[in-house]
Design goal:
The protein is α+β, with helices and mostly antiparallel strands. It has two domains: 71 residues, no CATH class; 136 residues, no CATH class. The protein contains six helices and six strands. The chain has a three-stranded antiparallel beta sheet with strand order 2-1-3. A hairpin with a 5-residue loop joins strand 5 and strand 6. Helix 3 crosses helix 4 and helix 4 runs antiparallel to helix 5. It binds zinc ion. Zinc ion (ZN) binds next to strand 2 and helix 1.
Length: 213
């Protein structure tokens, strides 16, 4: 099962091909076909016409409603700084299981900051899979629960902090560039986001606590 592909929100209806207008409602249907997740965004009128039976169709997994927001003009490349969200996108793009744990931790951080929302939780042979939506863009992707053990957590936090600070490793270049533990803001944010002893608990922290217990 491919858990890594990002599926962007469509800008037009899958059924009638009409472009979505800003601030109008649409429906997302998530299915599983030919070993991959398939996402279809459907306009309100088409949904009303065709929703009957849609949830019984083979491969159907999940359905939710969203409000389409026209994308803002992209900022110039030069001022795009690598943050937790762009880093997570890069990690998912590598399709490398080496970043499984780091991706999960980043997703938890971003969910806590309301950048991501969990839309669904799936189960497969490997365990739980979270379906995440990027609140601003409506993009969705899946992240498997790596079932982090308490004793692994610190190591993954260090890895995430190093990724935030230095970016992804490049071929032939030692990574991370320094042996000492990364410190500073990035690291503190991660600790705050995933430490089970943190006082301001919310839903996602509970999930993390359970998964590391
Ligand atoms: Zn339509």
């Amino acid at each position: 099962m491919n858990d890594w592909n990002i599926q962007s929100r469509g800008h037009q209806c899958h059924t009638c091909q009409k472009p979505f207008e800003d601030k109008t409602g649409y429906h997302t249907v998530l299915g599983y076909e030919n070993n991959e997740y398939i996402r279809h965004d459907i306009c309100e009128p088409c949904w009303i016409n065709a929703s009957e039976g849609a949830t019984d169709r083979k491969g159907y997994i999940s359905h939710w409603q969203g409000t389409y927001e026209a994308p803002p003009p992209a900022p110039p490349e030069a001022i795009q700084k690598d943050n937790a969200e762009s880093l997570l996108r890069k990690l998912l793009k590598t399709d490398d299981s080496r970043w499984r744990e780091a991706s999960y931790i980043l997703a938890v951080m971003l969910e806590r900051k309301r950048v991501l929302k969990v839309k669904d939780q799936l189960k497969d042979d490997g365990g739980r899979i979270f379906v995440y939506e990027v609140s601003k863009t409506g993009d969705i992707f899946t992240i498997p629960d790596p079932n982090l053990k308490m004793e692994q957590l610190e190591q993954v936090q260090i890895e995430v902090a190093a990724l935030l600070e230095y970016g992804l490793p490049e071929k032939g270049v030692p990574w991370p560039p320094q042996i000492s533990e990364p410190e500073g803001e990035a690291y503190e944010n991660i600790e705050g986001a995933v430490s089970p002893s943190n006082e301001s608990k919310d839903e996602m922290e509970t999930t993390v606590s359970q998964s590391v217990a």
